[in-house]
Specification:
Blueprint: E1 10-13, H1 17-28, E2 33-36, E3 47-50, H2 52-69, H3 85-89, H4 101-105, E4 116-117, E5 120-126, E6 134-140, H5 158-162, E7 168-171, H6 172-192, E8 199-202, E9 205-207, E10 215-217, E11 223-235, E12 238-243, E13 250-251, E14 257-260, H7 267-271, E15 276-278, E16 280-282, E17 289-291, E18 293-301, E19 308-317, E20 323-333, E21 336-346, H8 369-391, H9 395-398, E22 403-413, E23 415-417, E24 421-423, E25 426-428, E26 434-435, H10 442-463, H11 468-490, H12 504-514, H13 527-535, H14 572-581, E27 584-586, H15 589-601, H16 613-618, E28 624-628, E29 634-636, E30 643-649, E31 652-659, E32 663-667, E33 679-680, E34 695-700, E35 703-708, E36 715-717, E37 720-721, E38 728-730, E39 735-738, E40 741-747
Parallel strand pairs: 1-2, 1-14, 2-8, 5-19, 14-25, 32-33
Antiparallel strand pairs: 3-7, 4-7, 5-6, 6-28, 9-11, 10-11, 11-12, 11-13, 15-23, 16-17, 18-21, 18-22, 19-20, 20-21, 23-26, 24-25, 27-29, 30-31, 30-40, 32-34, 34-35, 35-38, 36-37, 36-39, 39-40
Length: 760
C-alpha cells in the first residue's frame, strides 16, 4: 500500500480506550499516530463508572487540537457543529437518555449527550449480626458533575482518582465509539483536503503472527512491525480469524513508540517475552497471601436502574456454618430503562455441579446437552435470587423481565507483569500489563486516564529534549505506578465490606452505622472455586454474545425496603429454617419457648413496623436507615456443621427439621417404650412405615453419612436401597425416603435448587 503512514511517531496495537486516548494526545501534540485493531468497531458490552478526570482530559484535548490546527482542520458533527469530544461526552445544556453514540455525533440526537450522571449512591449492608439478619442502608450524596471541563482539575495520581467517587455512567462501547469516530474523521479530513496525514486506522488487522515476520529487529534493537488484513467468522461457536485471501502484508516500518493495549492476555506482548503473574492479597485471616480472585455472574436486565450506583454486601454460609461476604452491584444509565447491569458475586464454596446438586445422575457426560442445561439452570436460579435482593423486585416479577445478556459466569484473577518496557521502542499498557478488581471500572480509568496520559508526558519530555530511551523508561515506570495503584486500591474489594471508591470519610460512616469494624475481613477459600471452573471453562468471547430472554421492560424500580429480605413476610419460613440450623445457646428455656411460639404465630412478630423509608430517603443525603430483628436473646455458639431435612408431602416442603448433633437417629417416637429419636417423623408418617429406630445420620469432620438401622420398610437414598448397617455418603440435595416419608437433605449456605432436569 502506497498510502501507508510508515515509521509513525506512535503505533497503537489494540484500539481500546487506552490506546485511542494515547493516539489523541499524540495528534494533539502535532505527531502522527497509527492504530491497529482486529475486532473492527468497538463492541464492549459493559457499563463504566467514570471519574470526572476523564471529562477534563477530553476538554484539554479539544483545547489543544483547536490551538494547534484551528477549526479548518478539525472534524465536524453531522449538523455542522465543531466536533468537541467533551461536549458530546457531557454537557449541562443537553440530557442523557437512550444513547447511541453515532446518533449524537451525526447530529440526529442534538439535545443529548453520551453519558448519564449519578443521582443516587446507595450502600446496603445486609450482613448478619449476632446470629440475626441485619440491614443498614446508607444513602450518600451523589457527586456533582462539573459545569465545564477544567484541565486544572485533572489529577495525576491514580490512587486519588480510583479512591474517589464516580461522577458519570456510560456504555463502554459508546465511549470507545466517541474516540474512534473522532480519529476516523481526522483521517478522513486529511484525505479529503490532501493534507499531511495525522492518523491512520487499520481496524480489521493484526501483527503478522509468524515468527520473524510481524516483529522484526532493527539494527539498533528497535522493532519494525508488519501487519496483515483479517477475515473473522464464527466457527462452531468460537471466533476465528484468518488472513484475508490474496492480501499483502503491510509494512508500518519502525515507530518511535509503540504501545500494546489489547486487553487481558495479549498474544503480541507474549511474543515479545512479556509475562504476567498472579497477584496475591493478604486478607489478614492468618492464612497469608492468596491469589486475588473472585467470581461473578453478569447480566443485563431491562430495568430502570437509572442514574443509580447501588452496592450491596450480604452474608452467605457454607455447609460448615462459616460466614462469607458476597457483593452485588446494580448500575444503570440515566433515563434509559433498557440498561440494568446487575453483577453478583459467587461465594467461594458454591459450585454449579448438576450432579452434586442432584439434578443429574452420577456419570452424566459433562459435554452432554443435559449437563449444560442443568448447569445453566443452576446459574440462572442463583443469579435471579441475588438480583432480586439488590433490586428489591419480587422473584416472580424479575423472571418476567427481559434479559438481553447473561447471566454469564466469569472469573477475575488479578495478574500483572514486572516491567511494561518490552522493546527499545515499545511498552505494554492497559489490561495487557495488569488488571485489578473491576467493580469500580478501575481498569478503564487506569488505562484511559492514567496510562494514556503518560504518552502525553512522553511527548512533552521529547519536546523538552529528553532522549527517547530515557523518556521511554519514564513512560514504563509511570504505567507500572498507575497499575500498582489500581492493585493497591482494589485489594480491599476482596476482603473488606465498604466499596473502595467511597472515600475514607464515607467508609467510616458506613462502619459506624453497621456496627462492624472497618478492619473486619471476609473469609476466603480457593479450592471450591477451582473445581467450579473445571466444570465448564469460562469463555471470554461470551462478552460479545447476546442471550435473549424475552419479557417486559420494567421502567420503575421499587424503593428500597427497610427490612432485610429474610425479615419479610414471604420469607419467614426461610428465616426460621436458617435460624433453627444454627446451634443456638439460649439463655433461658422460656426465652427459647417464646421464640418458637412467636415464630409459629405468623409473620407479624418478625417484622418491626415499617419506617417511613421513602420520606427518609427523600430528606437528603447521608440518611442512615437501620433495621434490626427483636425476637429474643439468641446467642450463637461457635460454628459447627449445620444441616437440616426438608420434609416433603405432595411435592411441597411442609417443614424443615434442623440437625444439630454429630450423630442423630431418625425414627418414630414410642412413649410406651420410652423411645424418642433425635428426629421424630411421627407427624408425617400417616401409614406407620417408619421404624422406631429407622436410620442414623452421622457427621465426621465435614462429611455426612446415612446408615439404615435394620428398618422394616427400608431407607432409600435416591433410588438406592441402603443395606442395613452400611453407611452411604450424604450430600446436599439428596432425596432420602424413610419408609414412605420423603425428605431432602440440605446444608446451610447451599443455594435454592430447581426441580431435577428432565428430558421430557
Amino acid at each position: 500500500m502506497s498510502d501507508v503512514i510508515r515509521n509513525p511517531d506512535f503505533l497503537a496495537l489494540g484500539l481500546g480506550g487506552t490506546n485511542m486516548m494515547a493516539m489523541l494526545w499524540t495528534v494533539a501534540l502535532g505527531r502522527t499516530a497509527v492504530g491497529v485493531e482486529m475486532r473492527g468497531d468497538p463492541f464492549l458490552g459493559v457499563h463504566w463508572n467514570i471519574r470526572a478526570d476523564f471529562y477534563h482530559q477530553l476538554g484539554l484535548i479539544d483545547q489543544m487540537m483547536l490551538e494547534r490546527y484551528g477549526e479548518a482542520r478539525l472534524p465536524r458533527r453531522g449538523d455542522g457543529r465543531l466536533f468537541r469530544l467533551a461536549e458530546c461526552f457531557y454537557s449541562p445544556h443537553t440530557s442523557a437518555g437512550d444513547i447511541v453514540a453515532d446518533e449524537i455525533i451525526d447530529g440526529f440526537d442534538a439535545d443529548q449527550h453520551i453519558v448519564g450522571t449519578i443521582h443516587n449512591v446507595e450502600f446496603i449492608d445486609d450482613r448478619w449480626r449476632d446470629g440475626l439478619p441485619n440491614r443498614v442502608i446508607t444513602v450518600l450524596e451523589p457527586p456533582k458533575p462539573p459545569e465545564q471541563p477544567d484541565p486544572r482539575k485533572i489529577r495525576t495520581s491514580m490512587m486519588e482518582v480510583l479512591d474517589g467517587p464516580s461522577t458519570f455512567q456510560a456504555e463502554a462501547a459508546s465511549i470507545q465509539k466517541l474516540l474512534r469516530r473522532y480519529l476516523e474523521m481526522i483521517e478522513q479530513k486529511d484525505r479529503e483536503t490532501n493534507s499531511k496525514p495525522r492518523v491512520q486506522l487499520f481496524t480489521h488487522h493484526r501483527v503478522v503472527p509468524k515468527e520473524g515476520e510481524g516483529f522484526i529487529d532493527g539494527p539498533d534493537g528497535r522493532k519494525r512491525i508488519r501487519i496483515e488484513s483479517l477475515k473473522e467468522f464464527d466457527f462452531k461457536g468460537q471466533f476465528v480469524r484468518v488472513r484475508e485471501p490474496n492480501s499483502e502484508i503491510i509494512d508500518l516500518g519502525i515507530p518511535e513508540l509503540f504501545m500494546i493495549a489489547q486487553g487481558f492476555k495479549s498474544t503480541d506482548a507474549n511474543r515479545l517475552g512479556f509475562e504476567q503473574h498472579d497477584v496475591e492479597v493478604d486478607h489478614g485471616d492468618g492464612y497469608g497471601p492468596v491469589v486475588a480472585q473472585a467470581d461473578f455472574l453478569a447480566g443485563l436486565v431491562e430495568v430502570l436502574v437509572g442514574g443509580r450506583l447501588r452496592r450491596r454486601i450480604s452474608s452467605a454460609f457454607d455447609q460448615n456454618g462459616k460466614e462469607y461476604w458476597v457483593r452485588q452491584i446494580a448500575v444503570g444509565h440515566e433515563n434509559d430503562p433498557e440498561v440494568g447491569w446487575v453483577l453478583v458475586q459467587v461465594p467461594d464454596f458454591t459450585t454449579f455441579d448438576p450432579i452434586e446438586a442432584g439434578l443429574l445422575p452420577v456419570g452424566t457426560d459433562p459435554g452432554s446437552p443435559e449437563f449444560f442445561a442443568s448447569y445453566q439452570q443452576l446459574i440462572y436460579d442463583y443469579y435471579i435470587k441475588q438480583a432480586t435482593e439488590i433490586l428489591d423486585i419480587p422473584r416472580q416479577e424479575l423472571m418476567k423481565v427481559q434479559m438481553i445478556y447473561g447471566p454469564t459466569l466469569f472469573s477475575l484473577v488479578e495478574r500483572v507483569g514486572d516491567d511494561p518496557l518490552i522493546a527499545v521502542n515499545g511498552v505494554v499498557a492497559g489490561d495487557s500489563f495488569g488488571n485489578g478488581h473491576f467493580l469500580t471500572s478501575g481498569g478503564a480509568m487506569t488505562g484511559m486516564i492514567g496510562h494514556s496520559a503518560r504518552v502525553l508526558e512522553y511527548w512533552q519530555a521529547r519536546d523538552a529534549g529528553t532522549l527517547p530511551t530515557d523518556a521511554l523508561r519514564r513512560l514504563a515506570d509511570r504505567i507500572k505506578e498507575d497499575t500498582y495503584a489500581w492493585l493497591q486500591v482494589s485489594a480491599q474489594e476482596y476482603s473488606q465490606a465498604a466499596p473502595i471508591n467511597f472515600g475514607a470519610e464515607r467508609i467510616e460512616q458506613i462502619s459506624k452505622a453497621s456496627g462492624i469494624d472497618t478492619s473486619a475481613r471476609a473469609s476466603a477459600i480457593g479450592a471450591a472455586r477451582r473445581r467450579r471452573h473445571a466444570l465448564i471453562p469460562l469463555d471470554p468471547s461470551n462478552w460479545r454474545r447476546l442471550f435473549v430472554r424475552n419479557g417486559r421492560v420494567l421502567s420503575v424500580l421499587p424503593e428500597l425496603e427497610a427490612e432485610h429480605p429474610l425479615q419479610r413476610p414471604e420469607h419467614v419460613a426461610s428465616l426460621l429454617a436458617v435460624m433453627k440450623s444454627f446451634p443456638a445457646m439460649v439463655n433461658q428455656a422460656s426465652a427459647k419457648l417464646k421464640l418458637d411460639e412467636e415464630l409459629a404465630e405468623g409473620e407479624q412478630t418478625l417484622l418491626r413496623p415499617r419506617s417511613s423509608i421513602h420520606q427518609e430517603l427523600s430528606e437528603g443525603e447521608q440518611t442512615i436507615i437501620r433495621s434490626k430483628l427483636c425476637i429474643g436473646p439468641v446467642a450463637p455458639e461457635s460454628a459447627k456443621i449445620y444441616a437440616f431435612l426438608d420434609i416433603q408431602q405432595n411435592g411441597q416442603v411442609v417443614q424443615r427439621i434442623a440437625i444439630k448433633e454429630d450423630r442423630v437417629v431418625v425414627g418414630r417416637a414410642d412413649p410406651k417404650r420410652n423411645i424418642t429419636p433425635g428426629i421424630d417423623l411421627t407427624p408425617f408418617d400417616t401409614s406407620s412405615s417408619v421404624s422406631r429406630r429407622h436410620a442414623q445420620i452421622h457427621i465426621e469432620q465435614t462429611c455426612f453419612s446415612l446408615e439404615d438401622l435394620n428398618s422394616r420398610n427400608k431407607t432409600r437414598l435416591g433410588e438406592l436401597v441402603l443395606n442395613p448397617r452400611k453407611p452411604e455418603v450424604l450430600q446436599d440435595g439428596d432425596v432420602v425416603s424413610f419408609g414412605s416419608v420423603k425428605v431432602i437433605f440440605r446444608l446451610l449456605g447451599a443455594s435454592e435448587l430447581p426441580e431435577p432436569w428432565s428430558p421430557s
